Amino acid sequence: MVLAVVDPFENLKGEPEVFVPPPHVITTPCDPWPRPYYLEDGLRKVHPYHYTYNTYCKERWRGRELLDIFATEFRDRPLEYYKDAIECGKVVVNGEKVPSVRECVQNGDIVSHTLHRHEPPVTAQPIGIVHEDNDMIVINKPAGVPVHPAGRYNYNSIVEIMRAERGYDWNPLPCNRLDRLTSGVMFIGKHGKAATKLADQIMARTVKKEYIARVIGEFPDEDVICDQPVMQISPKLGLNRARASGKDAKTVFKRLAYYPPSKSVNGTGPKLEDERSEKEKARDSKMAWKAKEGYSIVRCLPLTGRTHQLRVHLQFLGHPISNDPIYCNQRVFGPSLAAGDALSDNDEDIISKLSKMGKSEAAEAIAYHDEMVEEYNKRKAEKMTGELCDICDTPLYSDPGPHELGIYLHAKRYACQDGEWEYETPLPDWALPPPGVEGPTMTTIETDPMKLVDEVGDLKLDDRKYKSNGSGEDMRPS
Predict the structure, then answer these.
(1) Mean local confidence (pLDDT), 142-167
(2) 448 catalytic residue (yes or no)
């Protein structure tokens, strides 16, 4: 065998490597402190301010035209705005104005967008503190406030509101996520080690979570286990549906209370008058879900963590959350509200209808618990006013109505599986009995969904006591 001598530096000889500096970016003109908050009409508002978004080219953007990216990936501004922003240099690539809206973005490019930012208002309700120690803050998140800055929200987020309260250099580290419209228990780490420890527990599914929901109609009194897979239909709109080809999902439900529409639980309460107009009664007669009278308070125990899992499963069971602007919206899903529907092929039609909501018309969830949506709330729903900002010509939205600040879904309890810790909030106001009506003001052991999980272990399909097909029909084997 002949051994050849190899020079390890042979490939490094010749011209020296030239350092290529990173692309230029546009920096945000200012970072106002204190944050430009003000409180008005029960809302936390933010004075408009200039802001620059910088983002590296995502893999799915490579080789695509700049205007096409903005038109398909972002929905808070019309196409005409993005076209003008690119042409006048508000949108640049690597710090430079592009020659055409058809300029293609390449791997490594940085896209910058400077705009006069108008944040939507959120509730002025303070962030409640459930527990605090040297490592962690357990909060009661108000409904309608996003956890992280995202989309149209920046300073009006849990992270930024807590930073404004505790100091500019304080860095809150959320350990779990709740949807913007959902309220309840959240964990905020004070340092990285504590945040990582709890996040790892949640990822390992060693933390039990219980939610409270308020749904239309009389929810079954038996243990209900829904195992319909959940599929993401539109990432842009945040739309998910029950689909056989989706990801595995399983939720345990247990009814806490049912409140009929016209009398109390024990039948002796005051009769509630029907204050609907004849026009509203005619409208309601065409809605299949109107036959489901009253509303139920339901305890929910998700055994998996799919996006919108509880909302999708409750919709599939025929008892959607009463004021859910997506999954309890007849104008999007039709008279049946997609109860028991896991096979239809109308996703594109649903996406089209949903994308129109909240622009020229109110994004209304029509099926409320009292079945009488006041015209005031409709008028107050967030929608375009037809007015423009004096500085940037941005179309202005009206303030959101009270029913748009959140939905009837609350993360009530988080508990460590080995019993080391457990944190719980009281029932939210909307889950308490109506005035003059008797009902539970706190959860009970008899209705605890965690009790069912403890009894049957992992809740394999053969172990379940009951499963609903969407109509509330008992499907237990005879």
Answers:
(1) 94
(2) no
